[in-house]
């Protein structure tokens, strides 16, 4: 049996300013969209899965909707 992978996925764009990110023990994916409605976040799910599938390092990873600043990536 493989170990489960842990990660936090959030829409809280202030997360990295509210937490001590240097001590994170898991990757955190911040989904960035104009609104936090399901219709706006659903298109980002594939990219979130891609980020998490590539064995991300601990820390902040951003996934942004098209046309939104903040770029996806680490």
Mean pLDDT over all positions: 86
Anisotropy-based shape: globular
Give the C-alpha Rg: 12 Å
Low-confidence stretches: none
Give the tally of β-strands.
Answer: 3
Quick summary:
With 74 residues, the protein is an alpha/beta fold.
Keywords:
three-stranded parallel sheet; alpha/beta; globular; 23% helix; 3 helices; 74 residues; 3 strands
What do you see in this structure?
The protein has 3 helices and 3 strands. The protein is an alpha/beta fold and 74 residues long. A 3-stranded parallel beta sheet has the order 1-2-3, covered by helices on one side. The longest helix is centred in the middle third of the chain and has 9 residues. The termini are far apart. The mean pLDDT is 86.
């Amino acid at each position: 049996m493989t170990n489960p992978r842990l990660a936090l996925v959030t829409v809280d764009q202030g997360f990295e300013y509210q937490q001590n990110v240097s001590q994170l023990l898991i990757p955190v994916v911040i989904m960035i969209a104009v609104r936090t409605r399901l219709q706006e976040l659903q298109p980002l799910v594939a990219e979130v899965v891609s980020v998490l599938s590539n064995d991300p390092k601990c820390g902040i990873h951003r996934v942004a909707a098209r046309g939104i600043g903040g770029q996806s990536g680490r």
